[in-house]
Amino acid sequence: MSFEPYRIRTPATAAVPLVVSIPHAGTWLPPEVAEALASPQMTALPDTDWHLHELYDFLPALGATTLYATVSRFVVDLNRPPEPRPLYPGRFETGLVPLQTFRGEPVFRSAPTAAEIEARRQGWHAPYHGRLKRLLDELREQFGRVVLVDAHSIASGPSLLQGSLEEEIYLGDRDGETCGAWLRTLLLEAFRAEGCSVAMNTPFKGGYITDHYGRLVGVEAIQIEMAQRVYMEEGSPESATEQPRFAAARAMLRRVLGGLAARLRDAVPDTG
After folding, report:
1. For residue 25, what are the CA distances in angstroms to 55, 197, 229?
2. What are phi and psi of 40, to 5 degrees?
């Protein structure tokens, strides 16, 4: 378990109080986890947020900080609470170590033991969240506040989570509990100005990262869930970055988050 569970991209220009977390883009599996997968289909790593760390690679030029996972969510889900509790009571959801895919397929031949799950929590979940918390604390100390964007993507077809996804962008702030109206409105209007259809808090309200960190003093958090058809041909992740829609989506996201970074820069007092 010595494999680094995350990578950090630091600002390439004057920093702004913006952190973007990408917890589900990782594809690395330790050998013992790969050997325990239930079927050849699981080696294709369904439910991965394909190439998001590449889609958002412009963030350093905006002054933002990026934290992204390197390990697969089949190892441990970084957007789930470390202790067993539902984020969406009464609804299907996967746990800290997912035993089923979003379509109900078994991930492993047999479920990991409690000791194995705890080892994964300590080996990958805890370091990711420890680093995310430090990044937020550092920027909050420097600027007085910080915005956290938790970035995700999802296949558009129906699953046990939801029906077919008709909208392109799904924003979640736990029904207004994790950020101010200004942030929600800014992103809603920016995505719509780009021609995107946008839903708010349905069917995705934000996972553990949004829910947990957005309740800290001085932190505002919001989740961006993007239908994968916006930036790639679904089912063909191996060629996604070469597809024309990938570059178009990256440019669109740069404009949207560039507007947010500019807003945060303008709001930061000049201490120089």
Report:
1. 10, 23, 16
2. -60, -30
What is the torsional sign of CA 155, 152, 255, 214?
positive
CATH homologous superfamily for the domain 6-266: Zn-dependent exopeptidases (3.40.630.40)
For the chain (272 residues), the mean pLDDT of every run of 10, in chain order, is 82 98 97 96 96 98 98 97 87 92 95 96 97 98 97 95 94 98 98 98 96 98 98 94 96 98 80 34
**Domain spans in the chain, listed from the N-terminal domain onward:** 6-266
Dihedral, 198, 202, 208, 211 alpha carbons, nearest 10: 80
Q: Which residue has the tokens 């420097």?
A: 142
Spatial distance between the Cα atoms of 194 and 255, rounded to a whole number of angstroms: 9
Structure token pair of residue 37: 């997968």
CA of 160: how far to CAs of 24, 104, 247, in Å? 18, 7, 30
Considering the entire predicted model, what is its pTM? 0.95
Q: Which amino acid is at 130?
A: G
CA 69 and chain centroid, separation: 9
CB 9 within 8 A of CB 65: yes
